[in-house]
Structure prediction request, 949 residues.
Amino acid sequence: MELTLWTYEGPPHVGAMRIAASMEGVHYVLHAPQGDTYADLLFTMIERRGKRPPVTYTTFQARDLGGDTAELVKRHVREAVDRFQPEALLVGESCTAELIQDQPGALAQGMDLPIPVVSLELPAYSKKENWGASETFYQVLRGLLRSQAPEKASHDPTAWQNQGRRPRVNLLGPSLLGFRCRDDVLEIQKLLTMHGIDVGVVAPLGAGVGDIRRLPQADLNVCLYPEVAESGCSWLERTFGMPFTRTVPIGVGATHDFLVELHGLLGMTPPSEEEGYRRSRLPWYSESVDSTYLTGKRVFIFGDGTHAIAAARICSEELGFTVVGLGTYSREMARPMRAAARELGLEALISDDYLAVEAAMADASPELVLGTQMERHSAKRLGLPCAVISTPMHVQDVPARTSPQMGWEGANVIFDSWVHPLMMGLEEHLIGMFRHDFEFVDGHQSHLGQAGGTGMGSEQATTSESTPSESDLIWTADGEAELNKIPFFVRGKVRRNAEAYAREVGCREISSETLYDAKAHYKA
Amino acid sequence: MAGPTLLKESGPREVFCGLTSIVWLHRRMPDAFFLVVGSRTCAHLIQSAAGVMIFAEPRFGTAILNERDLAGLADAQEELDRVARELLQRRPEIKTLFLVGSCPSEVIKLDLARAAERLNEELQGQVRVVNYSGSGIETTFTQGEDGALAALVPMLPSSDERQLLLVGTLADAVEDRLVNLFDRLGIHCVRSLPPRQSTDLPALGPGTTVLLTQPYLTETARLLKDRGAKILKAPFPLGAEGSRAWMAAAADDFQVPSDTVADVLAPLMERASKALEPHRKVLAGKRIFLLPESQLELPLARFLQRECGMELVEVGTPYLNREQMSEELALLPVGTAVMEGQHVEQQLDRVRSSQPDLVVCGMGLANPLEAEGITTKWSIELVFSPIHGIDQAGDLAELFSRPLRRRQLIQPALHPAGSVHPIHN
Prediction:
């Protein structure tokens, strides 16, 4: 038993619903009590879908338990097939039905239905949503493609060269309730088109049963979201010999690496290293002088495995931030996450306890948080700026505008959405310079107000007192005067450094000389 | 018998389970914690329905059962003790701990009453531990509150004092207003269940007269009656007319002269009538279809038909307690289709074929219906908003007129003449 106040992931059958609702012509009969129908609102309210998810809940009640719940399952299966006329049926159970062991999948398979039936067994007491999505996608592929499997897998991803056609790849993994999947698909399609590569099937998002059946006609698979598609991609590789790409194209460097990997597998000449610089604005925006204030900004990253690992690379390599914390709630991604953290000299935080994440965040004293909606709330409590990079989904994460994370445009979106929450360097500098002018309207603050991320808040708090809180140190008048000549946005740091230095050398008075000594000491 | 036509259907349902009522119960009693003993689904349900992230640390949570508990590798009772201790250590301000049963805990027959008894002994009165079931195999949405209040009834001290007891969660402001009005009527001792502090339980006895504020408190009412309280029969306090009759029932029981009732309530009724007027203009003659969810459907239908002039296409209700609803049923027009239970697909077929002007439904169905061009009002808002009493009649009507007004406002620009209404997905 585990005390949970809030959870990053839903139960595994919600993952199955994500796959079913992403696809066309698929219906899911879920053996579950009435309360489980809440899951519909995830799609209709959070993702603002104008369609109900294609799910029939058996909504059995206590009084049914004494009788024949198996017959109840069969009745709902029959009704669902008659009413919705799906091309394939998924059948499974939620946590409560798992306990009464009706085996709805097997029951449906024994009903001699005219359509393929995929039986889902998703252990509700040990697994979670992303695992459920991944397992369901894998079972759908297996259920619909097994009959086509060759005796011996032989597949040449460069075969297109002799067939007088352009190379063709499938995009696997995008699903409903996934982070910006809708927009990532558009962006990756655009990216591939620029390189003369066709997209065969996108799945599960928007794929029908016929689309799944023609997956093997592509040259390879692009695994866009490993949380959902990696096990399916591996099965296609084992069974049909189709290779798949491992690099997730989030960020300029990763998008380039993805293109190199893809071109290599397809037997094409890799693209120029300059492409990212030409196609995305992130590289130049990061190089431009206004961005120097981003240097070394301390950033705390937490999210699903894919987005958090990608964020760590972008922060450290492309934006010049210092990553001071990195973690994920996806246990399935623990291994790559630990490796990514090690490279940055950190220990990965693998946890689904949001209070532990908040504690780690407070501990790391970051200047920017990249996290889920929950970290956005934690960061707000700590007075830290935050950008959201990952599920769990919130209605704000489904913006009306196109807002991808992947590819060149995704890198642009990322630059804007991660940098804007920080105080704008130049803007804040000017506010600091002119705040004593009579024209200055009191209360003019950046959008962050008093809870801002730079040293401004703490600076205001300390300048009014002539003696710092640690009363063992005394600032002389000329020490204070010298300190006040220093621009406000570094003043707090200089004050702290000077005091730390004074204690270190055992000096009680801080004069202008001490300030210069401290400066020399820390620059050395 | 003349009156509404009572119908029944069964099949797949689209309603919340009783756990959902924790969302408003925990706000009513800020010193109580609701610990669901259940699965990840339970935790996900409550956080999805409640928008939990706004809380630093919510006063509800789930003790999630895992495979070890189910396989008997861990003793579920011991595990529950451990989780409860861990929780109370972290939240020392908690005075009452509700252990809430769920579908899985009911199916594995985890005895929460035993757990509560044991924990009560251990905690020696520092924290009171109470148990009830909010499981979806036994309860629907608002029925969870019935379970929680019923579990409190045995804890109520006894008293013969003459008093009026309001039973069912009300918004604090609404409660204050009602207490003030009863005071003006000459009923000075008015208490509430649930109370604002979980430790401040009202006393109960033969001198107690109960007014139910909500129509879903069947079991609580039965237990209160067993303890000697008198349960008044009245329409529920939704809308001006219903609220007036509800207050008048209490006045009658306390032998308040009818002149006093008229003097106190007449100005309120007049004001309510003015407040209702603009909404009546929008709603009159419009056809409404209520899907079953909150159990408030019958009183709402009565209000919308009698005071707002709406035409009732179908009034769904998750279950029908004819005795408790007798006053409401009597006020519905002859022949009104009242449907108990649900077959959601068949019901949606009826919605589509009858093309009502407004549908009251749950959050899972609202946007899909809107995308088909059918205006909706989501019902969960009705259990979160202060809608009880004569003074709130205008606000209650506004909840229904707003979606219609909104459509009138934006439809002409968004759907120029001749354009086909697209299905969004």
Observations:
- Confidence is low (pLDDT under 50) at residues 442-469 of chain A.
- Chain A touches chain B through 56 residues (CB under 8 Å).
- The first helix of chain A runs from residue 12 to 22.
- The first strand of chain A starts at residue 2 and ends at 4.
